[in-house]
Amino acid sequence: MKPHSDILDKIRKLLRLADRSRGSTENEAKVALAKAQELMTRHNIDSVLFRMEHGEAGSPSFKVDKGKVDLPKALNPADFMILSLLQSHFNVRCILTHTKTATPVDIIGAPEDVDFAIFAFNYLRQTFFRCWNEFKKTAWNPDKASYYRGLRDGINTELKAAKQRAEESYATDQQQTYALVVVDQTAAISRYVDEHYGKLRNRASRARRVDSSSYFAGETKGRTIQINRPLAS
């Protein structure tokens, strides 16, 4: 099994390969994120199997860690979309706190998952803003929130596929073992949140009109794959 630092270095390399300043497209950036998600899933499964082989499966070896990203006091609509992606795909919980001048977000999970989630958040935030700035120049009366929602849903579809590809490369019994460990990890994260944050208030989502053309453009942007040059795996 590769060391944790090697995995994160490879993830960073994947995302650097999709840097627009190097001539890559937004779709390549999305492909790179999916490849990074697949790699991280493989790393997590390998870690579980490694502990199984060394008789550590039943030990309390799962460590809950906490990282943080600092956001402005007034959040951008993209922030909520990206945080939902992190919670859906990176085995972490995101807790928003508030100060008079900012909105710190605590990212809670296994140390490697926290590192990956923070890196992915910063990368996705740049990508969301860049996609929107390009789209609004070409669209008549575009709606930012609808576009971001579509972008989130398109990327969500690709990340699900990447995770499924990684999991299906393992035998059925290995997949089942990993699924059980994920349940245990989720429970450990929940206990940590309860102990350190107490009862949390869920943010109520407000129903709002969705501009179909902006949403469809965002979803298409998030789902379409057009690789102009090979990416390292």
**Main sheet summary:** 3 strands, antiparallel
Low-confidence stretches: 225-233
Task: Give the strand order of the largest sheet, numbering strands 1, 2, ... along the chain.
Answer: 1-3-2
Q: Estimate what percentage of residues fall within beta strands.
A: 5-15%
Q: Compute the number of structural domains.
A: 1
Whole-angstrom Rg = 18 Å
Number of helices: 7
Q: Categorize the overall geometry.
A: globular
Regarding quaternary structure, how should these chains be classified?
Answer: single chain
- Strand/helix succession: HHEHEEHHHH
Structural class: mainly alpha
What features would you describe in this structure?
This protein is mainly alpha-helical and 233 residues long. Helices cover 62% and strands 9% of the residues. It has a 3-stranded antiparallel sheet with strand order 1-3-2. The radius of gyration is 18 Å and the shape is globular. The longest helix is centred in the N-terminal third of the chain and has 28 residues, at 26-53. It has one domain. It has helices at residues 4-17, 26-53, 77-89, 111-136, 144-168, 172-197, 212-223, and strands spanning 65-72, 93-96, 102-109.
Chain-wise SSE layout:
Blueprint: H1 4-17, H2 26-53, E1 65-72, H3 77-89, E2 93-96, E3 102-109, H4 111-136, H5 144-168, H6 172-197, H7 212-223
Antiparallel strand pairs: 1-3, 2-3
